[in-house]
Write a structure and sequence with these properties.
five-stranded mixed β-sheet; Butyryl-CoA Dehydrogenase, subunit A, domain 3; binds flavin-adenine dinucleotide; 2 domains
Length: 489
């Protein structure tokens, strides 16, 4: 490894996972979790972020010199300080997302970023009687020095939504501090679903909600290796065994988002890895910082997904002969409805960068209204875009003959006429496109994408709260303006 840069190869990343204590459970404890096909596909997504960082074509985009250790590091582990860095971060996530759908690695990077800002605020409010920010810097340095891709566990199981943690019958509905000693804290509880958690070396825990004094044991943030004593990680979701075969898109055969649940059973967290410990007023601040930063990341991956859907819609109309003669045909309008979302969300991303503010910590923070509104818009319109694809493709994606038949001597010539469309497009190519649309819009994986679009980074209600919370002044100015227009003569 060049001394000037700390960039692990994807093999080194995978080797470090394999060297960990197996604590990953599917229907039973997996002795060799990283040989599991679905988990391997998830690892491949993270591996790509390591590969691209070494690839001369993407190196500038994927890496940056760290102000902390002076070395070239992966951009995901950098805390952005300038608008240029924000733009580059968005471009990096967009580029990866066009290949893998969800780049996944942003979640841990966003948590480091949120804690960087939050711990500085917390120490300041404690008049520097606490040293959370120094602890965070030490941890960040460890992450950068070892080119680790951590994940972020924010969402608690939450139990009965109408009750605060202290009123829950099931105490483990929230990750909480069980005991505090001179050396650290012990925590228990459930965080789920956590992207990357099955194939991350480190887990960063951030509170997911605001807490009152009575729930201060849940106001906790920390970092811990994924295989620490007392941690169990569970593979979530059904087997994705329908994504296989020669006509399945590379996306499904190579890459997958495999979610995990993390159970903490009285896990010891050493003091220097604890970044919030009972300061309940700061739970909401940490949660909101993370949420806005993560929604900002969505402003890069969502345009990538909408662009993929735009291209898919263009191709299917071309293959099916439904493109239409005129520019503003019925089909063009449908395609435009999908494409429009990519443009709107990208514009929100650019606005979030333009209006970004440097915080006292030195880290820059994208504008919260544009970040939240962009994610809100992207989520709101996702089902519509899926529905347009389903409409444009007709029945074929969910009604494909078995792929083996296409090359069968006996039946190949019988079934191929089903795929006869535009001249020059082979039955195999048409099959592949329809299979791609099925994966996207009517498979377990496509369902995950749709749920991820709705709930990932928090759902629309949470986004609306953030938009309102950050817009009150402007909105009351709107009211004053109208009063002036209609009442002042
Ligand atoms: C693909 C995917 C990936 C994810 N990755 C991560 C990750 O990496 N890390 C992480 O921490 N989390 C992750 N999440 C979790 C995500 O952040 C949560 O799903 C999201 O915050 C919503 O929480 P929930 O699922 O518990 O739904 P709920 O909070 O139960 O919300 C369900 C509905 O109930 C409503 N509701 C909730 N509480 C109340 C109430 N008190 N009164 C009235 N209505 C209420 C909500 O508005 C919503 O309409 C992921 C989720 C998905 C789908």
């Amino acid at each position: 490894m060049d001394k000037k840069e700390i960039l692990k190869t994807s093999k080194e990343y995978e080797d470090s996972l394999r060297a960990m204590r197996p604590n990953i459970i599917k229907d039973k404890l997996l002795k060799e979790p990283y040989e599991d096909e679905d988990i391997q596909k998830g690892m491949n997504v993270v591996s790509l972020s390591y590969d691209y960082a070494q690839d001369p074509k993407y190196k500038d985009l994927m890496t940056i010199k760290s102000p902390l250790n002076g070395k070239i590091i992966n951009r995901f582990n950098n805390i952005p300080q300038t608008k240029e860095e924000l733009t580059a971060r968005l471009r990096m996530i967009y580029t990866l997302s066009t290949q893998v759908g969800c780049a996944q690695r942003c979640v841990g990077g966003d948590a480091l970023w949120a804690l960087f800002i939050g711990t500085a605020q917390l120490d300041k409010s404690n008049e520097s009687k606490t040293n959370y920010h120094q602890r965070l810097l030490k941890y960040l340095r460890y992450i950068q020095d070892n080119d680790i891709a951590p994940t972020a566990a924010v969402t608690d199981a939450k139990g009965d939504r109408s009750l605060p943690p202290s009123k829950q019958e099931e105490k483990n509905s929230y990750v909480h501090i069980v005991k505090e000693t001179e050396d650290g804290i012990y925590v228990s509880g459930i965080k789920s679903p956590i992207t990357m958690s099955l194939y991350a070396e480190e887990i960063i825990v951030v509170p997911g909600l605001q807490y009152a004094e009575s729930d201060k044991d849940c106001a906790v943030a920390f970092a811990i290796p994924g295989d620490a004593e007392g941690i169990e990680r569970y593979v979530l979701g059904p087997e994705i065994n329908s994504l296989c075969g020669e006509f399945c898109p590379a996306h499904g055969t190579k890459y997958l988002n495999k979610e995990g649940m993390i159970i903490f059973n009285n896990v010891f967290i050493p003091k220097d890895r604890v970044f919030l410990c009972g300061e309940h007023r700061f739970a909401a601040i940490f949660a909101n910082l993370f949420a806005t930063l993560h929604r900002f990341s969505y402003l890069a991956c969502k345009p990538a997904i909408y662009d993929i859907m735009t291209g898919t819609a263009m191709l299917i109309s071309e293959y099916n002969g439904t493109k239409g003669k005129y520019f503003l045909s019925n089909t063009s309008n449908k395609i435009l409805e999908i494409y429009k979302q990519s443009i709107i969300v990208s514009a929100m991303a650019k606005s979030a960068v333009v209006a970004a503010q440097v915080t006292e910590s030195g880290a820059i923070f994208p504008d919260p209204v544009y970040s939240n509104m962009g994610k809100y818009t992207a989520s709101e319109n996702f089902p519509k875009a899926i529905s347009i694809l389903q409409d444009m493709s007709g029945n074929l994606p969910t009604n494909l003959p078995y792929p083996e038949l296409l090359s069968s001597e006996e039946y190949g010539s019988h079934v191929k006429p089903l795929f006869a469309r535009k001249k020059g497009i082979s039955a195999e190519d048409h099959y592949k496109l329809n299979e791609w649309i099925r994966v996207f819009s009517a498979s377990n994986e496509g369902g995950l994408l749709q749920f991820g679009s709705k709930h990932g980074g928090g759902n629309e209600e949470a986004e609306k709260v953030a938009i309102y919370g950050n817009s009150l002044r402007r909105m009351s100015q709107c009211k004053k303006m109208v009063k002036k227009i209609i009442l002042d003569k």
